[in-house]
Design a protein that fits this description.
The two termini are 33 Å apart. The protein is built from six helices and 44 strands. With 577 residues, the chain is mostly beta strands.
Length: 577
Amino acid sequence: MNWFGLSLFGALMVSSLQPAPAMGSLQVVYPPREHATSAPQIFFIGTAPPQVVVTLNGQVISDRSPAGHFAPSILLQPGLNRITLQAGDQRLDFAITRTVPQVPTTLQPLEPTADLVRLANEIVCFTAAAPSDRAVQVQVGQHILPLEPLPPQVQLPSNLAALIDQADVVTPRPSLYRNCLQLSQVGDYGQIQWQFDNQRQLGARIRVVEPTQLPVVEVTRSLGGVARTGPGTDYSRLTPLPVGTRARVRGQTGDWLHLDYGGWIRANEVRFLSSALPTIATIRSITSRQLAGWTEISFPLDVPVPISIQQGDRQFTLTLHNTIPQTDIIRLDADPVIQRLDWYPVDQQRVEYRFTLHHRQQWGYRVAYEGNRLVLHLRHPPQLQRGTQPLRGVKIVLDPGHGGPEDLGARGPDGTPEKVVTLALAKKLAPELERLGATVILTRTEDIDLDLSDRLLAIESAQPTLALSLHYNALPDAGDARHTQGIGAFWYHPQSHALAVFLEGYLSQRLRRQQYGVFWNNLALTRPTIAPAVLLELGFMIHPEEFEWIVNPQAQAELARTLAQAILEWLQQATRH
């Protein structure tokens, strides 16, 4: 599985790189000889000569591929597990430690653990793990607050569990204690004193400020400020804030700033301005014009405010936060994308601009501040041609996943890295698309390191009709490598959903491959807004038989032809509606 353009599980497999054994001998590419995991089981990915019997802890691995590849799983007991793989007279010993949640023997503060800045009368909650049936309390300034034991809790699985059909698996959590306190007095309350039996422990500092003391910040991150639903990267992303966005800080947790419109942002993505600057905007008449391939809509503001964007079925909604509308006139001529533009005051400081579109499929957008003026571009649908080159005028970016000496991606049973086969496929797919008339841009054409930012810049610079990131798959430790295979697709923006669904279904059916599934996921290579962007997982590197299909040159050529035809048929279908 590829997260932010990097194969997370592939990276784990890369960490087990060892000198290649002699040709024809037992080889295990995952797990490392010493490994720690919280999973209840683990798989072994490797190969041996087909005629040689391979055993795992004395049990014969009978379901190997014709080439001798294997991917069995074995259950793990809590703590250290000694596991042996043997082929003929060659033996490999593994020490796999399964970690499990430990019952705390002392107090463990859980919330808050970073310094806080809050407004007066806000409620601050305190949570700690501790042995059951004990007295736990906190002291905040002069306030002493006993923490109450919570009912038995469960630890939800990570988001990765959705990829291995284990989303309902939960594990017990240690005994938790919790209570909340409303801090009404402005001032510095100092460090929290956590108290457990006769033990005392100092924690984060809390400061309460007046609204007049709240600073104003301006987004400086060139790719846009990453706004989230809470103070940390575990929280979900919101619409990125364009460079120049201005907002007042209403609170702080560690290095995360809580902005007045509701989102959180890291302090290193903004600069602090004079607190006397206004953060409430007014907006007046709105204008639009048509450019080559785009419609440009201009929103004149006196303050660059935070924004949110939602895409729906024939709907594109732009919300301006901290904005009071004074809109009387909107110019919008007959347009190839927009049927109508309506606006609605949501509350006293939010206004929605709702675009009703001609077509269900949306083809991309970009948004930026030019001074205080917010400029939104909506992309026109592509125009397909008649004849033997229907994709003439269509531009497609292909991103072969991974590359270079460090980023191998997932590895097959014989050690073949994902980066090799993604590039091989891209080089076969490009001429197939070019024969249909498309202009094709590859983010890499050789085995080089390529940062995510470089891949994203290539997409933004090309302004393609479509962007496809090509990958092959792996699983986390708890997955079933032997029985999981098939083609999957990942999307993020609604404009990419139909493409992801179509490609996953078309390829699976035409190539007679299993369907792994279609997933919404916040991956770097699915986040571009300028065009529908899909990350394809075209098979599992760690599945013995599917791996043989992945590396087969004839199968790669068939996949390239079929994928090119799928792209053509989807574009023909999408531009008809």
